[in-house]
Amino acid sequence: MRISELLKKDTIVLNMKATDKSSAIDELVRKLDSAGRLNDPSQYKKAIWEREDQSTTGIGDGIAIPHAKSAGVQTPAIAFGRSSDGLNYESLDGQPTHLFFMIAASENATQSHLDTLSRLSTYLMDEEFRNKLLAATSEAEIVKAIDEKEEEQLKSEKNPSSSSDFQLLAVTGCPTGIAHTYMAADALKAEAKKQGVTIKVETNGSGGVKNRLTDDEIAAADAIIVAADTKVDMARFSGKPVIQTGVTDGIRKPNELIMKALSEAVPLYESAERGSQANEGSGERRGFYKHLMNGVSNMLPFVVGGGILIAISFIIGIEASDPDHPSYNAFADMLMTIGGGNAFGLMIPVLAAFIAMSIADRPGFAAGMVGGLIAATGGAGFLGGLIAGFLAGYVALFMKRLLEGLPQFLEGIKTVLLFPVLNIFLTGMAMLVIVSPLADFNSGLESWLSGMGTSNMIILGIILGGMMAIDMGGPINKAAFTFGIAMIDAGNFGPHAAVMAGGMVPPLGIALATTFFKNKFTKQEREGGKTNYVLGLSFITEGAIPFAAADPGRVIPSIIVGSAVAGGLTALFGIGLPAPHGGAFVIPLVYGSPLAYLFAILVGAFVTALMLGVWKKKTV
Q1: Which of 281, 338, 379, 615 could serve as 286's disulfide partner, Cβ 3.0–4.6 Å?
Q2: What is the largest CA-CA distance in the chain?
């Protein structure tokens, strides 16, 4: 199928009237609808915005490719729009956007349709082709320019390189798999050609994996670039230099990626066994933080479920779970046994086990679980669990390499006998040695926090609250959240109250700002602000990210100040929170006054809203 079968004169807007992103999307949706390509324009437009919420489709160089696959599409189609003056589409390079291709794929679109839609995105990486579109004076010239480009591309595809000896290999992929996947692939190929480097690119798009890399090609390549926001089979790259980054870097930074790949500064990728995703990623997605977050994310259901059951038990009575206390309640005792004795009891072993598994895959899991249990029962707490997890993971990796040279007849017993015995023994012995000093350190930390004066606790609350807003779900936010959980485990509920208050403020503050200062936000932002009420009340700080990405200089300082105020007030009021998650739904469970806690959160949110209302400029 040719692109000209999907892009017709009746879906072309040569002179767009739109002045911003929202009106540009509206204008192109109307064009598709008036041409009879949509059966439910509102449903299709909703799908377009859902894709924009993942990441902007304004890819830079004056191009935007809004796209969606939706039941609101009657016939697969492409709408073209051109804005001579350019408009702000929140592009990755921050520059005005002039060329718009809105891709409409129906839910039952054939693979031929999807391939054609995807092919268009790659053509836009050619500057000469873009200039032809900008200079065209009629709809017919637009269609002709695309036809000529497609003919040229189809001819080149009939004579592909037959070499299996590529200097570099790459993999690209995005969640939708229609545009960004192929644009990143084309950008990397174009840059490699410019530098005289041979490259093969595998695409993970809407039609599945294409141009798959072979084992021989992987073995011969100097390095591999993985520019993807989707899951990629990484185990096949074990032992090779690998760069892993997002798909937009493949589009925007192909020169940087290729230059780095050709250098000797690329780390070797390691995988415990084929099919494993252990050690996947590089940069922010690799190393300590990745392993820690794997442990924390798998531990979280135990923490949340157990913590809230404990908190409900406390509502019945602080001592109601104690059979020897006059306020004893059998149901409260059951809640405490389930939540505290079991769910919370598994928290540290699960944390350690999944950290170890992230490092060494399955050989590390059992050793991590045992090491974590030693830490938990020995009083070493959260810190002991972290140490046990990393210790078990690296012990398992060491043993794997140490036993690589065993005779072939012993291979079968390595995984079922040697690895479990040696990994558990070595990890367990090391933990037994260090568990007592760690327990002493935990006791000291708990005593220090408990003995803090009011002013010191307020400072801690300000710091923790502000940390929750700095990167909204990133490493700093997770560090504060992890510290709060550790303090709950140690029996100190004050820090986590500041953490949760600080995490609720950014989306709530932005929601209030979009409500009371409507002229400072676009229509799309005002609609997004309504959603942030729910996200904020649910303790989902990430709801603030789209606003921070669009205007970081004003939004990030505003939410940090508001969150810090909320955290400080929480400490001032002496609030404690035994539940690790739940947002507004667990406010009744706090130690101290629930109303005071709610007041602290609202004050922080209003501070953020007022700062944004004063600071942001009016929208046109």
Answers
A1: 281
A2: 88
Q: Is the pLDDT of residue 529 over 90?
A: no
Which tens digits make up the pLDDT trace of 81-97?
999 889 999 887 788 99
User: Residue 275 above 50 pLDDT?
Assistant: no
Given a cut of 90, whether residue 27 has pLDDT beyond it is yes
Would you state the structure tokens that stand for residue 563, as one six-digit string? 């969150």
* Mean pLDDT score across all residues of the chain: 82
Distance separating alpha carbons of residues 600 and 606, to the nearest angstrom:
10
Helix (H, G, I), strand (E, B) or coil at 567: helix
Residue 203: burial class (beta carbons within 10 Å; 0-12, 13-18, 19+): buried
At 509 the three-state DSSP class reads: helix
Q: Of 99 and 485, which is predicted with more confidence?
A: 99
Indicate the SS3 state at residue 606.
helix
Name the phi and psi angles at 604, rounded to 5.
-60, -40
What are the tens digits of pLDDT across the range 461-482? 999 999 889 877 665 777 788 7
- What digits encode the pLDDT tens for the residues 116-133? 656 666 677 777 888 889
Q: Are 543 and 580 in contact (CB under 8 A)?
A: no
Sheet holding 199-205, edge to edge: 208-210, 199-205, 168-173, 223-228, 242-245
Is 174 noted as a catalytic residue in this protein? yes
- Could you give the CA distance from residue 211 to residue 368 in angstroms, rounded to a whole number? 39
Give, to the nearest 10 degrees, the angle between helix 552-572 and helix 594-615.
Answer: 160
Residue carrying structure tokens 């200097």: 167
Q: Annotated catalytic residue: which of 113, 174, 180, 291? A: 174
Alpha helices in 254-407 (DSSP H): 254-262, 288-316, 330-336, 344-360, 362-377, 381-402
- C-alpha angle 210/201/239, rounded to 5°? 105
Per-residue pLDDT, averaged over 514-519, amounts to 90
Q: CA 314 to CA 327: how far, in whole Å?
A: 11
pLDDT at 264 (0 to 100): 73
Task: For residue 35, give both structure tokens.
Answer: 């041409």
247/346 Cα distance (integer angstroms): 38
The arithmetic mean of pLDDT across residues 305-324, rounded, is 76
Q: How many CA atoms lie within 13 A of 94 on its CB side?
A: 4
Residues 18 and 27 sit within 8 Å (Cβ to Cβ): yes
Angle, CA of 341, 343 and 348, to the nearest 5°: 95
* Strand, coil or helix: 75: coil
Average pLDDT over residues 316-329: 82
